[in-house]
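Memo to structure team: turn this sequence into structure tokens by end of day. - J.P.
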Amino acid sequence: MSKSLTAIQVLSPRSRFSNPAGMRCAISLHSHSEHSREMLAFLPRLVEGMPVVRDLFARSVAEYEREEGRPLDFAEWYWRPPVAPAEVVASEQEHLERRLGLSGLVSLTDHDTLAGPRALRVSRPETPFSFEWSVPFERSMFHLGVHGIAAAQVDEIERALSAYAKAAGYEHGQTLEELLDWLGECPDTFVVLNHPYWDLARVGQMRHDATLLAFLRRHGDRIHALELNGYRSWTENRRVLPLATGFGIPVVGGGDRHGFTPNAIVNLTGAGCFAEFARELRVERAACCVVFPEYTQAFVARVLQSAGDILKPHPNHLRGHRTWPERVFTTIDGVERSAASMWERAPLWVDVAVGITRSLGTKPLSTLFDMVRADGRGTLETDCGAGTGFSAFPRLTSGSAAAA
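Reply from structure team:
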């Protein structure tokens, strides 16, 4: 495998972005719209850390079990982000052009569906067919950002990849090797291993790390980039850098937005379109990442701010889903039903949990998280600088354009 080259620039609130020579566009990868299903299986673990809510939660779950005769399975429930595909693309492009002064290219990657790109291509035929593919591997789970699927084969590829994910990788007609090779046949397609160190299957971090190494040993030549993720802590993200060096794979930025806040880690390119960007990654094995100042805020505060955006009312929602219960769903007898359609009024514990989460996500309280942060922020600039195998862009000049 040939050597890769990745440049990473960390912008500070006092920095003004200076465009490196030869860069023509900025690229936003890894965004989610209302077409993504975000499972709620994490909720019981989250509530465990909230003392008052934890007690109300346990009481209400026990009451549900008494009334329904079975435990409340949060894996059966999911929520959808409050942003339509066109809104995601428009806000990302505006953000890139305003902050970096470059034309913006956006790849929308909803979970295991191409519904968003299909809708966008009606008015934006240049929209790439992209999505985030859930790939079971041994006992772990990986998310692969599949970007720029060939339009002539998109229906066939979507069916095959979805079938593999649903079959959990077992008893399926095509192997993972065959599917990845199939994707690689199109020179305009590239595959990114998103947030590599996130233990999605909760098998334990050590087991997940070992499985990650096994995955890359087997499929590393079919993966075109590893991701620095905008909503994972730097403690986790920094581990991607030596991994990329060891396997000779470029590093790209992926914001992973689920709400209204634009992506905090993006990419620069000398390409003028996604097909040319794919060539940079696959042939030249080069990448340039930009880390916006927002990423350097306390990790917990950023997550809670995003949660607050998701939970607050949105009176202008395009589908009329103005309140969060209208955006939380379960499937009953094959029919999707919202929480709003099943509740006359939300249970007390839900109201309390939502109220606390929204309060913690407000800016006045975000400074509290800076006092107790343990997200690795202190090593960010050093990790991305000279002497680590990752080159930096030219030194930035003083000003405020990057933080505007």
